[in-house]
Amino acid sequence: MHPSYKKQLLLLQIELVKLQRHFIQCNNKILVIVEGRDAAGKDGVIKRIAEHLSPRETRIVALGKPSDKEKSSWYFQRFVPHLPSASELVLFNRSWYNRAGVEHVMGFCTEAEYEEFFVSVIEFEHMLIRS
After folding, report:
1. What one-character DSSP code corresponds to residue 98?
2. Residue 105: exposed, middle, or buried by beta-carbon count in 10 A (0-12, 13-18, 19+)?
3. Residue 1 in this model has a pLDDT that exceeds 80
4. Counting beta carbons within 10 angstroms of the beta carbon of residue 112, is it exposed (0 to 12), middle (13 to 18) or buried (19 or more)?
5. How many domains would you assign to the chain?
6. Digit-coded pLDDT (tens) for 39-80
7. What is the pTM of this model?
8. CATH value at residue 109
9. What is the pLDDT of residues 12-44, one digit of tens each?
């Protein structure tokens, strides 16, 4: 790592720790979604973000392939148990946006499921914002 990069990274990580202390004190919650192709550097970004944060208030969620039960449930249901609680920061290594990208392109969802995603995602995210 270049010395100027390391210095800048450390300064940014200090700001993240300050942010975490602030939202813990305010009893807020933060959800960060990291999307990207395979080998795009998502894991490295998540590692750098979480590196100095409190492990008690920070979780990383990387859901695997949905089970048969999850496939038969409301699409967003598998993500809900992993959403942050008060004073918590959760980083999603990929999220529900997979339905609009990878799943659709690779044929892992039907055209109807793809269309339903776009109808539902806006209200789902409004619910998250309101909470």
Report:
1. G
2. exposed
3. no
4. exposed
5. 1
6. 889 999 999 999 999 999 999 999 988 899 998 999 999 999
7. 0.88
8. 3.40.50.300
9. 999 999 999 999 999 999 999 999 888 889 999
Enter the tokens of residue 68.
């048969």
Place of tokens 């995602």: 121
User: Which position has the token pair 């695997």?
Assistant: 64
Separation of alpha carbons 87 and 75, rounded Å: 26
Residue 85 one-letter amino acid: S
Q: Measured between alpha carbons, how far is 11 from 125 in angstroms, rounded to an integer?
A: 31
51-77 burial by CB neighbour count: b if 16+ within 10 A, else e? Answer: eebeeebbbbbeeeeeeeeeeeeebbe
Domain that holds residue 65: 3-130
CA distance linking residue 104 with residue 57, whole number of Å: 34
Structure tokens at 12: 């940014």
